[in-house]
Amino acid sequence: MDGENGATPVITARNLRKMYGPHLALDDVNLDIPPGAVGILGPNGAGKSTLFKCLLGLITTTSGEATVLGYDIRT
């Protein structure tokens, strides 16, 4: 899928969800990050670190799918 500027996104996420036991850390995250985009903002506890840990493959997601540079984060 091409982003707004016609470039293929370097990071995509569809319905990404992460639970820590009964606690919901990420709730159906959907995003397309184009090349050159920088920054993620949010209050404490919003899930910023959890999102990056999932995208880097450091922790597994509960559901959903994502790719980084075309690679599936689950592999």
Automatic annotation (TrEMBL):
InterPro entries reported in the protein's UniProt record: ABC_transporter-like_ATP-bd (IPR003439), ABC_transporter_ATP-binding (IPR050763), P-loop_NTPase (IPR027417)
Task: Recite the UniProt keywords alphabetically.
Answer: ATP-binding, Nucleotide-binding, Transport
Q: Does Disulfide bond show up as a keyword for this record? A: no
Q: Which GO terms describe its molecular function?
A: ATP binding; ATP hydrolysis activity
User: Which residue ranges does the record assign to the ABC transporter domain?
Assistant: 26-74
What SUPFAM superfamilies does UniProt report for this protein, alphabetically?
A: P-loop containing nucleoside triphosphate hydrolases
Family recorded in the similarity comment: Belongs to the ABC transporter superfamily.
Give the protein name, as stated in the record. ABC transporter domain-containing protein
Gene source species = marine metagenome
